[in-house]
């Protein structure tokens, strides 16, 4: 069975958090859709709150260290990304934005990405489109059409008849799965892989 890797980023600050809950729901939807396509998913969920100090240090120094460095490497090597942030004052949380800021500009080029966000009321839902989607567009990722915003009341089970939450999560998971399943397993090698070492060049003199 073909295997694909997904890294899910949860920007929630509390534990437990509605942001992590949405992250898990999106992961479940994507994994289910991949399974239906004969693709096995390996998933890593990253809680940004566990890397908050390293993220700030990376912002200050320009170099990630510790566990954060490994997270960024696995993120760049993934076949798909799920990124979910709480919405504060009409934008992504500072921690989420800082994490995105330390991602190398070319690291996620062409990466399938599913976006999600949580907030107190539905009036913050557009923040996904004007605040979060542009960040990943700048990184040249392949962001799926359907993004999922969940307000506090949405968890009560009172779904909107026109756009029920479960259906939106399922559709978003399906869109991500389609891109991830079609993703070429091959990865481009390092730009300098074929460049001989100085020792090899001098040995021929």
Note the topology.
Blueprint lengths: L1 E9 L7 H19 L2 E9 L4 H10 L4 H12 L2 E9 L2 E2 L1 H8 L10 E8 L7 H12 L3 E2 L4 E4 L13 H18 L15 H6 L2
Parallel strand pairs: 1-2, 1-3, 3-5, 5-6, 5-7
Antiparallel strand pairs: 3-4
Mean pLDDT, all residues: 88
Order of helices and strands: EHEHHEEHEHEEHH
Shape: globular
State the share of residues found in helices, binned by percent.
Answer: 40-55%
Separation of the first and last Cα atoms: 49 Å
Low-confidence stretches: 188-195
Structural class: alpha/beta
Give the beta-strand count: 7
Oligomer: single chain
Tell me what portion of residues adopts beta-strand conformation.
Answer: 15-25%
- Put simply, the count of helices is 7
In angstroms, what is the radius of gyration? 19 Å
Largest sheet: 7 strands, mixed
What key phrases describe this protein's structure?
7 strands, 205 residues, 7 helices, alpha/beta, 7-stranded mixed sheet
């Amino acid at each position: 069975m073909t295997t694909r890797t997904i890294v899910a980023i949860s920007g929630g600050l509390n534990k437990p958090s509605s942001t992590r809950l949405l992250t898990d729901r999106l992961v479940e939807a994507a994994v289910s859709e991949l399974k239906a396509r004969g693709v096995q998913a390996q998933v890593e969920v990253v809680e940004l709150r566990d890397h908050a100090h390293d993220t700030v240090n990376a912002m200050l120094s320009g170099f990630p260290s510790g566990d954060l460095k490994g997270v960024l490497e696995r993120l760049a090597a993934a076949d798909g990304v799920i990124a979910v942030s709480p919405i504060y004052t009409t934008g992504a949380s500072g921690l989420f934005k800082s994490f995105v800021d330390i991602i190398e500009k070319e690291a996620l080029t062409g990466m399938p990405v599913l976006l999600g966000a949580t907030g107190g009321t539905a009036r913050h839902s557009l923040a996904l489109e004007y605040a979060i989607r542009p960040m990943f567009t700048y990184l040249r990722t392949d962001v799926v059409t359907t993004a999922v915003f969940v307000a506090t009341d949405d968890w009560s089970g009172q779904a909107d008849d026109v756009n029920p939450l479960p259906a939106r999560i399922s559709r978003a998971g399906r869109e991500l799965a389609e891109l991830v399943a079609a993703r070429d397993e091959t990865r481009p090698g390092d730009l300098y892989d074929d460049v001989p070492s100085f020792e090899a060049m001098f040995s021929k003199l």
